[in-house]
Amino acid sequence: MANVPWAEVCEKFQAALTLSRVELQKNPEKEPYKSKYSARALLEEVKALLGPAPEDEDERPEAEDGPGAGDHALGLPAEVVEPEGPVAQRAVRLAVIEFHLGVNHIDTEELSAGEEHLVKCLRLLRRYRLSHDCISLYIQAQNNLGILWSEREEIETAQAYLESSEALYTQYMKEVGCPPLDPTERFLPEEEKLTEQERSKRFEKVYTHNLYYLAQVYQHLEMFEKAAHYCHSTLKRQLEHNAYHPIEWAINAATLSQFYINKLCFMEARHCLSAANVIFGQTGKISATEDTPEAEGEVPELYHQRKGEIARCWIKYCLTLMQNAQLSMQDNIGELDLDKQSELRALRKKELDEEESIRKKAVQFGTGELCDAISAVEEKVSYLRPLDFEEARELFLLGQHYVFEAKEFFQIDGYVTDHIEVVQDHSALFKVLAFFETDMERRCKMHKRRIAMLEPLTVDLNPQYYLLVNRQIQFEIAHAYYDMMDLKVAIADRLRDPDSHIVKKINNLNKSALKYYQLFLDSLRDPNKVFPEHIGEDVLRPAMLAKFRVARLYGKIITADPKKELENLATSLEHYKFIVDYCEKHPEAAQEIEVELELSKEMVSLLPTKMERFRTKMALT
Amino acid sequence: RVAVRVRPLSKRETKEGGRIIVEVDGKVAKIRNLKVDSRPDGFGDSREKVMAFGFDYCYWSVNPEDPQYASQDVVFQDLGMEVLSGVAKGYNICLFAYGQTGSGKTYTMLGPPASVGLTPRICEGLFIREKDCASLPSSCRIKVSFLEIYNERVRDLLKQSGQKKPYTLRVREHPEMGPYVQGLSQHVVTNYKQVIQLLEEGIANRITAATHVHEASSRSHAIFTIHYTQAILENNLPSEMASKINLVDLAGSERADPSYCKDRITEGANINKSLVTLGIVISTLAQNSQVFSSCQSLNSSVSNGGDSGILSSPSGTSSGGAPSRRQSYIPYRDSVLTWLLKDS
């Protein structure tokens, strides 16, 4: 080693680090990597000053350093070997330089050179990788190699490096445990060495990033459950190490809950949402760390926006849980099946027994106080499918609470699309609650509420900008009227004497349903008001269904006037015919509405006969 | 529609001995891989030597002497005229210029005074049309606005200088007007010269602000919007037809803001280093796991048609089948640019 005072070497190294950290945009426009190149030059100088690398390849066979070498390179070490003595110490110092050179080359988009340096770093450290002195650097080098290989789209290689880091961390914590040296300390004078606490913090941060990178890798490998698990762990660690911004953390947890909802894992979803609530409530108490994004001057706005967004995540939780229950308990005409309900009730006990064991396996946020706060929120919400009206109503009320909260931010003037989605969710909550309601009048009232909240939306919206949403609402209103009509008919059925009042009501509902189905169908016409020859794929099924229902509705208009009745039957037949004809011309449509097509064909053959009988009857009187 | 345009070599490129490896053949642009080309074996590998890409239009603008040369006018005749005809029919049109810094986006969109580009020509076209079709005086109205998006913040480039510091505009949705930028100034223009003046003013504003924050203007997107309102007769009643032309000059593609690595996450398998992007990773996970459910459609059975006169049993939740809705909600992470251009 050349006779240069150690202090000078350290100074050079620190200068190199400082240059490395200069933001790219501070460099001249045509030379964005200028500071990096300067840093590199300094690092090379330090390397030269440290002298040649020690030879230690004689003990091991010429193992390649890539992960393809099997267990050797990435396998776990058998024992902890401390780098003692001048040779080992030099190796470690060189390893630090190689690491920084590697990262430097990667930053300047020279991946091959970067890889070379990082691999050299690993080779120098391999024997000592489980030691207190070297583990952090080793893991960081492997992580950077993982990122490098991901850029080359060799994701399995990246996975191998990152999993190796993960395993190494676990082994270290088990067998050694004390906070390891941070690589930056190598070239710092004694008095500037870090505290145990600081070392621990930095090491844990490295591991958190390790988990985060693995989450991304699993996502690319389409191992989605695993990816979610690692995202979940990353979030958990951010909490544990106080390295988070409440608003950002809360919205991430709420977003993760949506993944779980899509997978029907309601317990996990509930946990994420409850945690989101608790952490969001911490806003203002915790200061931002270096990992958090800036939002100057926009924080109040962002706060309200995120609050509204978390509320919407909750709405989806309540809605999906209720709908899932409906799915498992409905019969083939969409009514509550009592047998299925009993089955599920019996299952419930088993579900409750298993609860503890499932909970233990899941990733839990927080300890102590935080854990209690989250549990307090969880206790108020069920994660099990509701089996009767009472249970459904609880979820409904919670969902409705969050609807109001969401609407505070997502007002129609400013957030049209979002506002409407929230209203649609509200309507859906009513609809699914109606499924559980046994009394028909009360069910009617629920549909009436839905119509009341949806109808005003169609008036104000500019159809040019909000075409899809308009169609959705029209279709939904029409269907609500349709359901209401059927309910009124059933109610009238049970009365001995259906009076003219209820008949009028039924006809009015029929008319309203027709109106909205017609509006929906009209929205499909081109600017010249011509109905399309070929209906687009995205609206094909709804369009066919609309036609089908229109046909049925005409057939259900109650009138004493025989001439009118005949007219209605004729119109009904016309629409059934349209469906049959269209499906003949467009076989792909036939696939979309198999059931309705069958029924339409039946009606097309039955109705003419019926109409003929009617005409004969009319002629006779 | 996608068009590609090839520019001449720059002074620096010529000095460094750069060679043109692009070739245009009708609607196909071919790129020659020089490294493969130089290998001695002539056969077997010819596929990899040249890669071909198809476009709707290919413009060769390397040498003005070349008979194949595509001038500003040629580009305008294809793309610009299409914009104009669409606008006349009431459509909203969006024109993007995409490419690295120095690839010639500004030349194509704006051009030097001696040979103006698409934007000035389109404006000119609008004014000419107005003169032609105007039997009534104010039958067309043209307003322009010019905004810049940098780091997801929107700035009005035509704001009267009263503020020292540029402030951020909010992007909102209005039931009647659709998505809009709140507070964005719109300027009525009645002739071509006014338009050019405003364009130059806006561009100057971009550059000034850029030097102020040490960023190259190549990092931001700029959108020049022309609002074109025509008086028409609809069902024999006087009415208005409004269309919008959005001319977008995208940021240099190589200089995407490092703290916004969205592109890097979605393309290829790149891993993002910073935990700042955790939210995006989770959003993507949630998004991919989404199930589109037809509006409350849970089964596909339906109650039978039934005879009229016989009151049949209630159908409860018969099949929905309305235009689909999502089962979950992903908190909003779309970029401002995407949102603003939603309606065109």
From TrEMBL, chain A:
The keyword Cytoplasm applies. Keywords: Cytoplasm, Cytoskeleton. The keyword Cytoplasm applies. It comes from the Eukaryota. One of its GO terms (cellular component) is cytoskeleton. GO terms for biological process: central nervous system projection neuron axonogenesis; microtubule cytoskeleton organization; neuron projection maintenance. It is found in: Cytoplasm, Cytoskeleton. InterPro entries: KBP, TPR-like_helical_dom_sf. Residues 54-65 have a biased composition (Acidic residues). SUPFAM superfamilies: TPR-like. Belongs to the KIF-binding protein family. Activator of KIF1B plus-end-directed microtubule motor activity. Required for organization of axonal microtubules, and axonal outgrowth and maintenance during peripheral and central nervous system development. This is KIF-binding protein. It comes from Cercocebus atys (Sooty mangabey). The lineage of its organism: Eukaryota, Metazoa, Chordata, Craniata, Vertebrata.
From TrEMBL, chain B:
It comes from the Eukaryota. Residues 306-327 are annotated as: Disordered. The keyword Coiled coil applies. It holds the Pfam family Kinesin. The keyword Zinc does not apply. Residues 1-344 form the Kinesin motor domain. GO terms for cellular component: microtubule. GO terms for molecular function: ATP binding; microtubule binding; microtubule motor activity. ATP binds at residues 99-106. Residues 306-324 have a biased composition (Low complexity). Its main location: cytoplasm. One of its GO terms (biological process) is microtubule-based movement. It is found in: Cytoplasm, Cytoskeleton. Coiled coil: none annotated. InterPro entries: Kinesin_motor_CS, Kinesin_motor_dom, Kinesin_motor_dom_sf, P-loop_NTPase. Keywords: ATP-binding, Coiled coil, Cytoplasm, Cytoskeleton, Microtubule, Motor protein, Nucleotide-binding. PANTHER family: STAR-RELATED LIPID TRANSFER PROTEIN 9 (PTHR47117). Belongs to the TRAFAC class myosin-kinesin ATPase superfamily. Kinesin family. This is Kinesin-like protein. It comes from Macaca mulatta.
